[in-house]
Amino acid sequence: MTRLDWLSQPARALHGSVRVPGDKSVSHRSMMLSALAEGRSHIRGFLEGEDTRATAAVLQKLGVRIETPSAGERVVDGVGLHGLRGTAEALDCGNAGTGMRLLAGLLAGQAFDSTLIGDESLSRRPMRRVTEPLAAMGARIDTQDGLPPLRVHGGQPLKGIRYTLPVASAQVKSALLLAGLYAQGETEVIEPHPTRDYTERMLAAFGWPIEFEPGRARLSGGHRLRATDVDVPADFSSAAFFLVAGSIVPGAELRLPAVGLNPRRTGLLQALRLMGADITVEHERESGGEPVGDLIVRHAQLHGVELPEALVPDMIDEFPALFIAATAAKGRTVVRGAAELRVKESDRIATMAAGMKAIGANIEETPDGAIIDGGALRGGEVDSHGDHRIAMSFAVAGLMAQGPIRIADCANVATSFPGFMELANGCGFELRTDG
Ligand code: S3P
User: Fold this and answer.
1) Residues near ligand 1 with C-beta < 6 Å?
2) CA-to-CA distance for 51 and 166, rounded, in angstroms?
3) Number of H helices, E strands in the chain
4) HEC profile for 90-123?
């Protein structure tokens, strides 16, 4: 991949309406369930990101016909639970942990063998968290010492298990539920810390009998998925960068229409409000079985907080953005109980701490979080380590720095938020490619 660097500079004010793209988690799941359903499903608002396109391409390689009538739209001719065709070609999930882990569960129940591969970052991410419980269901999946590639052996009879998640992970829960579609008997996942429930909600929407509540999901094998239409809400995790930007730039006022507000995703909204942010929700409604609303954010002086640990799973992807909000805040912010950040697209605690120190922030890394004291940012050079959310968070930091921030390695922003730069500049950012 060609290397792409950005330069972010202070902005005067931010104004306007920012329509962020479709939710990544919902887009992945809509593609997988449509592929396994009987009949034709129409997906609207599908995220045109590299991660979700990789999942669509994998399913095409497995024989699913997918049309793209227009950007953000997919028409999927489902092949039914047992209609996928095996391929000797490796299935490339790109940068997507969600793609690889959910597909591992889905492929464990097939009659054929498959190999799942990923990019450099995905190839360093832990996979035993899915392969071990899947093995307990009867699956056979080889890893390279716990890392990708994953070699999934087909033709293994699966049986349901009752599994308590040792780490909060919607990906692991979803992998087990997808394998559970193919298993004899009941699969039950217990979550000490509830995580996003899109797989559960969408299985129900596709007609699969499932019982779920926060902390527990249970289904049995042997049913069918019926094609259905899916409206994908705008991604709260993409809106997050604008919630922080609007909070920290004096005079800012931004509107973010039709953002998904599933309570398992909106921890950052609560965190920012605890810090004194001025964010309101208008036109709360339901769309495609998900709560959505328009978010309005206005500048406010933030103050530091001891972040309640209970919020961590509900904002697991928003910590890079929160760290920037914490430097704009008066006083100290303490984050604990977030060790999972170390195994995301990069080690997000280490990558953020290194970058923030390089631009003059006051941050101390801890094993499971950070201690951040608010203060001015000088500007300077940071490395995103190819992590999309870190690149976008430093673009936001550039709004409040005294000098420009040069951000290295930003191409992966296209995995989750194609068009970020144009949308950001459209509301007043001063962001451009560099070099
Ligand atoms: C996701 C779950 C989370 C999140 C990721 C998307 C999902 O990962 O970080 O961006 O769609 O299920 P974990 O399950 O590893 O917490």
Assistant:
1) 25, 98, 169-171, 174, 196, 316-317, 340
2) 26
3) 13, 23
4) CEECCCCHHHHHHHHHHHHCCCCCEEEECCCCHH
Token reading at 41: 């499903």
Q: What is the DSSP letter of 4?
A: -
Q: In the chain, what are the domain boundaries?
A: 6-22+233-433, 24-213+225-231
Greatest Cα pair distance, the chain, in angstroms, is: 61
User: By C-alpha distance, which of 370, 320, 369 is closest to 346?
Assistant: 320
β strands within 35-185, DSSP E: 38-44, 65-67, 73-79, 91-92, 114-117, 140-144, 147-153, 162-164
Q: Looking at domain 6-22+233-433, which CATH architecture does it have?
A: Alpha-beta prism (3.65)
3-state secondary structure of 329: coil
Catalytic residue among 119, 197, 317, 409: 317
User: Cα of 210 to ligand 1 centre, how many Å?
Assistant: 21
> Span 234-258, mean pLDDT?
98
Looking at residue 322, its pLDDT comes to: 98
CATH for 24-213+225-231, options being 3.30.720.120, 3.90.1150.10, 3.40.50.620, 3.65.10.10: 3.65.10.10
Active site residue 317: yes
What does pTM read for this prediction?
A: 0.98
Fold match between domain 6-22+233-433 and domain 24-213+225-231: yes
- Ligand 1 centroid to 117 CA: how many Å? 18
Residue 1 pLDDT greater than 60, yes or no: no
- Give the distance (Å) from ligand 1 centre to CA of residue 98: 6
